[in-house]
Specification:
The complex is a heterodimer.
Chain A lengths: L3 E4 L2 E4 L5 E7 L6 E7 L6 E7 L5 E2 L8 E7 L2 E6 L8 E7 L9 E2 L3 E5 L1
Chain B lengths: L3 E4 L2 E5 L4 E7 L6 E7 L5 E8 L4 E4 L2 E6 L4 E6 L8 E8 L6 E2 L3 E6 L1
Parallel strand pairs in B: 2-11
Antiparallel strand pairs in B: 1-3, 3-8, 4-5, 4-9, 6-7, 7-8, 9-10, 9-11
The chains are: A mainly beta, B mainly beta.
């Protein structure tokens, strides 16, 4: 199957700093990437859809100025959590959807963000 | 808006038991349904993918069924093992580019 590589797997940062999470498609070109967030004991919730070469589409209630998404190439999508707060502590995971040469969705390994 | 519900939220069984996890969704116009496993603090592992035209898929001790008309899917695990302990997530794709997840079922298999 296709490989989606997400880094870092874990990150601890101080309040007010920014954290960048990278999601790379290693053996295919991803025109679209989904970003999800999961709080403890809750379901994965879609945050935004990144599209190569254009602006990301954000779900309702997700602050676009806080969660900056960049999809500058067909193999890299990034999520930057700006001015992080403890309530941003969560599990973030990216996914390449079906289509674009894929028959099913493939997920990155996820990033556990802890803001202290 | 598509809503996905998983029952039960948590399940604890002794090793060797057969068990069924349930998933229901409100909009039957789905492209596919996928079952995932998630270990604590880890990413998702895809278990089974059922296309909308299919009724079931099998992989080893796992069998997933899909009844689109009633908006239901079940994941059957045969002869459960302690290594099966994890959270199992059901996700549906209303169209060919998005997924909606259930909250998951936390399974514990006791030795």
């Amino acid at each position: 199957g296709a490989v989606v590589s997400q880094h870092p797997s874990r990150v601890i940062c101080k309040s007010g700093t920014s954290v960048k999470i990278e999601c790379r498609s290693l053996d295919f070109q991803a025109t679209t990437m989904f970003w999800y967030r999961q709080f403890p004991k809750q379901s994965l919730m879609l945050m935004a859809t990144s599209n190569e070469g254009s602006k990301a589409t954000y779900e309702q209630g997700v602050e676009k100025d806080k969660f900056l998404i960049n999809h500058a190439s067909l193999t890299l999508s990034t999520l930057t959590v700006t001015s992080a707060h403890p309530e941003d502590s969560s599990f973030y995971i990216c996914s390449a959807p079906p289509g674009q040469g894929l028959t099913e969705a493939f997920f990155g390994q996820g990033t556990r963000l802890t803001v202290v | 808006k598509q809503e996905v519900t998983q029952i039960p939220a948590a399940l604890s069984v002794p090793e060797g038991e057969n068990l069924v996890l349930n998933c229901s969704f409100t909009d039957s116009a789905i492209y596919n349904l996928q079952w995932f496993r998630q270990d604590p603090g880890k990413g998702l592992t895809s278990l089974l993918l059922i296309q909308s035209s299919q009724r079931e898929q099998t992989s080893g001790r796992l069998n997933a069924s899909l009844d689109k008309s009633s908006g239901r899917s079940t994941l059957y695990i045969a002869a459960s093992q302690p290594g099966d302990s994890a959270t199992y997530l059901c996700a549906v794709s209303p169209r060919n580019n998005d997924m909606r997840f259930g909250a998951g079922t936390r399974l514990t298999v006791k030795p």
